[in-house]
Specification:
The complex is a heterodimer of chains A (97) and B (313). Chain A has 97 residues and is an all-alpha fold. Helices cover 87% and strands 0% of the residues of chain A. Chain A contains three helices and no strands. The mean pLDDT of chain A is 86. Chain B is mainly α and 313 residues long. Chain B has a domain at 135-313. Chain B contains eleven helices and no strands. The chains are: A mainly alpha (97), B mainly alpha (313). The interface between A and B is small, with 7 and 8 residues.
C-alpha cells in the first residue's frame, strides 16, 4: 500500500515537472507576449495541479491536504487574474508586433 | 552524495546567478524583478536549512514587500534613468569596494569561526516550557531578546515617519500618493473582492499559530497589509489620510502595548520586559496580536508612499 502511494506520488510529480519544463520552454521560445502568457497558464494549472495531486497522499492528515489544495486554488486564481491584467495592459498599448 | 545534495547545489547556483543578475541588470526594473526572484529562492534556501520562520519572513518581506517598494522607486526613477544620471567612476569604485569589504567580512566571519560554536540553543529549549510557547523562535523573540523585537517595531515607525516627511508642506495629513487604477478594471476588482477574505483569515492564522509553530506577527501583518493595499489599488476603498486618528492609533498600538507590558514587568517581575511567571504566554500572544495590527498598518502605509498634494480640478 505504501509502495503504491509512493509510486503514485513519483509519477504525478514527474508529470507535473514535465508540464513545468514545457511551460518554461514555451515562455522562452514563443514569439509574442500573448502566446507566452498562454504557455505560463498551463504551468500554473496543470503543472502545479499534478504536483499537488502527487503530494496529497503524503499530506499530514486532512488539514494538510486541505492546505495543499488551497495553495493550488489560490495560485490558480491569482495566476488567472494576473494573466488577464497583463493581457489587458498589452491590448491597451496597441496591437503587439 | 544524495539527491538532496545535488538539489541543494543547484539551488545555491541559482541563487548566485540571480544575485549576479540583479547587479548586472541594465535597467532598474529588471534588477527589481530579479531581486524578487532572489528573495523567493532565498526563502527556499531557508526552508532547506529548517528555518521556516525566517523563510516565511523572507518570502513576505524580502520578496513581496521590499519588491513592491523597489518597484515603486524604479517607476519614479524611470524618467531620469537614461538621460542624465550616471554615477561618476570614483563613486562606483568606492561603492564596489565597500560592498566587497562587507562581503569579505561576512565570508571571514563564517569561514574563520571557531570549530566549536558557542550555542545558546540548548538553554533556549530547556527553558522554553516556562514561557508556555511551543515555537522556540517566538520564545527567543519575545522572552530572551524582547528588547530587540521592541526596537525593531519602533524602527518600522521611524521608517514610516521618514517616508511621510517627504510630503510637501501643503500635502501634510493628505492621502498617500499610491498609484491606483483610474478606470474601473473588472478583473482587478474581482480579485480584490474574492482574495481579501481568504487573506485576512490566513493572516490572522499566521499570527495566532506563531506561538507554537512557524509564523508570527511580521508574517501575518505582511499578509494583512497586502490585502489592504489590494483593496486600495482596486479602488474598493480609499486610502486613509495620514492624519487619520484611527490610522495613527493603529500604528502605535503594538509598540505601546509591548512597552506597557515591559514597564509593568518592572513592578510585577522585577525587570523591564520580563513577564510575571504563569502569565508569559497570554501576554506574549496579546503583544503579538497588537503588533500584527501595527505592522500591517505600517507596512501598508510604507508601500502607499508619502501623501501627495490634492490636485486642483
Amino acid at each position: 500500500m505504501a509502495f503504491a502511494r509512493d509510486l503514485f506520488t513519483v509519477l504525478a510529480l514527474v508529470a507535473g515537472a514535465l508540464f513545468f519544463l514545457a511551460g518554461t520552454v514555451g515562455l522562452i521560445r514563443f514569439p509574442d507576449q500573448l502566446t507566452r502568457l498562454h504557455a505560463l497558464t498551463k504551468v500554473d494549472n496543470l503543472g502545479l495541479g499534478l504536483v499537488i495531486l502527487g503530494l496529497l497522499p503524503q499530506a499530514d492528515g486532512w488539514f494538510g491536504a486541505f492546505k495543499l489544495v488551497s495553495v493550488w486554488l489560490l495560485v490558480q486564481f491569482s495566476g488567472a487574474v494576473v494573466t488577464q491584467l497583463i493581457a489587458g495592459a498589452l491590448r491597451e498599448r496597441g496591437p503587439c508586433a | 552524495m544524495t539527491i538532496a545534495t545535488f538539489a541543494d547545489a543547484g539551488l545555491v547556483l541559482l541563487v548566485l546567478t540571480i544575485g549576479a543578475s540583479t547587479i548586472f541588470a541594465r535597467r532598474a526594473f529588471d534588477a527589481v524583478i530579479a531581486f524578487v526572484v532572489y528573495g523567493l529562492l532565498l526563502a527556499i534556501v531557508w526552508v532547506r536549512l529548517s528555518a521556516i520562520d525566517v523563510a516565511l519572513t523572507e518570502a513576505a518581506i524580502g520578496g513581496g514587500m521590499t519588491g513592491m517598494l523597489l518597484l515603486g522607486a524604479a517607476a519614479r526613477l524611470r524618467a531620469v534613468e537614461f538621460d542624465s544620471f550616471a554615477a561618476a567612476l570614483p563613486v562606483r569604485l568606492c561603492a564596489g569596494f565597500l560592498c566587497a569589504l562587507a562581503a569579505a567580512g561576512l565570508a571571514g566571519a563564517l569561514l574563520l569561526s571557531p570549530k566549536v560554536v558557542l550555542s545558546l540553543a540548548p538553554a533556549v529549549m530547556e527553558n522554553l516550557p516556562r514561557t508556555g510557547l511551543g515555537n522556540p523562535v517566538a520564545g527567543v523573540l519575545f522572552a530572551y531578546r524582547a528588547l530587540d523585537t521592541l526596537l525593531e517595531k519602533v524602527v518600522l515607525l521611524l521608517a514610516l515617519l521618514g517616508v511621510w516627511s517627504l510630503a510637501p508642506n501643503q500635502a501634510w495629513n493628505g492621502i498617500p500618493g499610491l498609484r491606483i487604477y483610474d478606470q474601473p478594471n473588472t478583473t482587478l476588482t474581482f480579485l480584490a473582492q474574492i482574495l481579501p477574505p481568504v487573506g485576512i483569515v490566513v493572516g490572522i492564522y499566521m499570527c495566532w499559530v506563531g506561538a507554537n509553530e512557524p509564523g508570527g506577527a511580521f508574517q501575518g501583518g505582511t499578509i494583512l497589509a497586502a490585502m489592504w493595499l489590494l483593496v486600495i489599488i482596486a479602488r474598493l476603498a480609499d486610502a486613509p489620510s495620514t492624519g487619520n486618528t484611527w490610522l495613527r492609533i493603529g500604528l502605535v498600538f503594538g509598540p505601546v502595548v509591548f512597552l506597557s507590558v515591559g514597564l509593568a514587568g518592572l513592578v510585577l517581575a522585577n525587570a523591564f520586559l520580563a513577564y510575571p511567571p504563569g502569565y508569559a504566554k497570554p501576554l506574549i500572544v496579546a503583544i503579538e496580536v497588537a503588533l500584527t495590527i501595527s505592522i500591517a498598518a505600517a507596512l501598508a502605509m510604507l508601500a502607499a508612499g508619502p501623501p501627495k498634494p490634492v490636485q486642483q480640478q
